[in-house]
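To close the chapter, one final illustration. This time we ask the reader to focus less on the individual chains and more on the assembly as a whole: which components sit near each other, and how the overall shape emerges from the parts.
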Amino acid sequence: MTKTITIDGNAIPFEDGQTIMDAATAAGVYIPHLCHHPEYTPHGSCKLCTVRVNGRVCSACTFPAAEGQDVLNNTKDLNDDRQKITQMLFVEGNHFCPSCEKTGNCQLQAVAYYLNMLDDHFPHFYAHREMDASHHDVLIDHNRCIFCTLCVRASQQKDGKDVFAISGRGINKHLIVNSKSGQLKDTDLEASDQAAHICPTGAILIKRTGYTVPIGERIYDHKQIDEVSLASEAEDHG
Amino acid sequence: MAKIRIATTSLAGCFGCHMSFLDLDERLVALADLVEFDRSPITDIEHCTNCDIGLIEGGVCNSENVHTLREFRKNCKILVAVGACAINGGLPAMRNFIPLEECLSEAYLDGIGVENPQIPSDPELPLLLDKVRPIHEVVKIDYFLPGCPPSADVFWAFLTDLLEGREPSLSYELVHYD
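The assembled structure is written out below.
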């Protein structure tokens, strides 16, 4: 007999070893997320996938599905919390969408649209962060890094390299690269690496490709991230 | 019925949001039956008094912006942050990562082609703040219309919702940060 959990009152089948996120995505239920990607070990850091499991707050991307779980996901309270989390991400970094070439293709922006985030609510940090334009094909703009570690995981788990890491703690946390000079050009990163393409924001960009698709015709300009995410990730979770 | 009074201003903005407002085109005629403009670049009225709605474009970059914003807050029942700069400082806030003194030196002392280099210091000029700030960090804001600029459809959806007594809401297609 199929094992099931309930999400927002609907029975969702799962197999042993699946997380709540795996089961939900395979069943076509969107749980907002930024640091999660079905191909990589869950990290559980962005907290956007926060759900309530039998009353307890958990990260859906790391929490194993189990019989008897009654999960709340798409509720006003949880989406309000997710909106606040997204606002904190916006004020901690420097996310100026009109001047970012990722706009319209950016998952951080798309999640904010999905949550109907109209303002940043909190005071802005305006923290000074550097750019690394040293690499011939790939640019790092630290202003937009949300420390999701997807580039770290993609480099290690997919590319078989070890280009990226997160260094420091708390407010001093930052993305570093694996080279003596500390510059991206001295790493073995190539533009074809998965790590160069997986950034959910505009922190890691492929040079000279930013405006090949005009603003207004980009991924999230007319489609919401729940639809896009489920279409691309449902198979991986199957 | 008395017309709804709207005041508008641009602080540290580029007037792009005002231009987008004018993109309402023929809908401006319908709007003019319901609203009248108080202080605004459209009217040249210098100070606002007893308004229903205040639309603020741009962030806060100098002392005059602070005074203007406070005047709007005092005189408008509903105050609205219009556009990216009002909401997060926008492009003017990109100077926040450069010390103010360096900004002024680059523009007025060391820049290419500068003649008679001096940093403007006429007492009539408003003093610059050390950082450009979003307006919600200075006064309470009631509604936010994101976009660079928000489209005319955003203004229309928002104002018609308010005028018809509904809680304003923006559909997915109308919410853009770019």
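Chain A touches chain B at residues 90, 94-100, 103-104, 109, 112-113, 116, 118-121, 123-124, 126, 128, 215, 221-222, 224 (CB under 8 Å). The first helix of chain A runs from residue 20 to 26. With these observations in hand, you are ready for the problems at the end of the chapter.
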